[in-house]
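I need you to check the entry underneath: sequence plus fold tokens. Let me know what the token row says about the fold.

>
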Amino acid sequence: MNIFRLAGDLLHLGSIFILIARLQQTRSCAGISFKTQCLYLIVFATRYLDVFLGVISLYNTLMKLFFLASAGYIVYLMRSPLKASYDKALDSFRVEFLLGGAAIFALVFPHKYTLLEILWSFSIYLEAVAIIPQLFQMTRTGEADNITSHYVFALGGYRALYLINWIYRYYTEDDYVDYISWVAGVVQTALYGDFFYIYFTRVLKGKTFKLPV
């Protein structure tokens, strides 16, 4: 554990609290990609299976349980009580390509050739692209409310902090190498590039998130 990972974890937690608060307060999931939320649920379900095999640490276990439970709760909210506010026509990205691509990479380039490690690798590859349906939906509408923008920024910021965490660990820990997480993390952070630019130039200046015409 180091300050960069801790800050990244807190920002990740913050993104989830922001989204849940937004859904509960507005009683609407308009502008939120249900497909992205389903992908995150799959990410956590395949990555955190080891939580049922033993407790590594209290912090680690509680974080895993929270991510699993919160992802399931968000999907439930969007699928049941808030279903009427969901616009399926806007959330139209073909996620089977993301799922299939992640599965192929996990089988060809796993961390190790064991079931848990293949599933872990799958979750890493899938998380790298899970935000794409959300970004695609924002591209289609051309704008987003500020709370949704803060949610997406917190997700991107969490991953950017993890990149710094990996660099720190590389120079401070002996024999630390994790090519799968590194490559997937760089790809994931790069996907937020355009969003970060608009967020910093518009949202942080009190304007609404809106794509340039």
